[in-house]
């Protein structure tokens, strides 16, 4: 596939990508490790999605803070898929700032993780 053209997201992940896109359009999320960390410190983030292929250094910056602040987080999708879902380039982390979106994302991530999902 040509470089710079994102690959389509597989159907099981499509609903998650759709809700992330909606949250992005509603300005109900922050993207990138640094912006997510800042928003977590400010108490704005309800949950976080961390890309499965995020660099270990990025995860080490974010995960201890999330655990200390008791912010739920999920590891799923790739950097490319997360970025594509929110209309950006590859991103390692997305912080969801709206309770309703955070709850819906948690349900969708659980469905992806289930044996039937």
Automatic annotation (TrEMBL):
Ribosomal protein eL8/eL30/eS12/Gadd45 domain sequence ranges: 17-103
One Pfam family of this chain: Ribosomal_L7Ae
Domain of life: Bacteria
Coiled-coil ranges (or none): none
Protein name: Ribosomal protein eL8/eL30/eS12/Gadd45 domain-containing protein
Species the sequence originates in: uncultured Gemmatimonadota bacterium
């Amino acid at each position: 596939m040509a470089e710079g053209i994102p690959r389509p997201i597989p159907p099981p992940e499509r609903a998650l990508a759709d809700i992330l896109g909606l949250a992005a359009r509603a300005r109900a999320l922050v993207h990138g490790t640094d912006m997510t960390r800042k928003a977590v410190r400010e108490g704005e983030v309800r949950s976080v999605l961390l890309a499965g292929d995020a660099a270990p250094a990025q995860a080490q910056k974010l995960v201890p803070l999330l655990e200390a602040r008791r912010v739920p987080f999920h590891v799923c999708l790739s950097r490319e898929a997360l970025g594509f879902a929110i209309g950006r380039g590859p991103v390692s982390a997305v912080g969801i700032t709206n309770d309703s979106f955070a709850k819906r994302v948690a349900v969708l991530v659980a469905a992806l993780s289930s044996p039937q999902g």
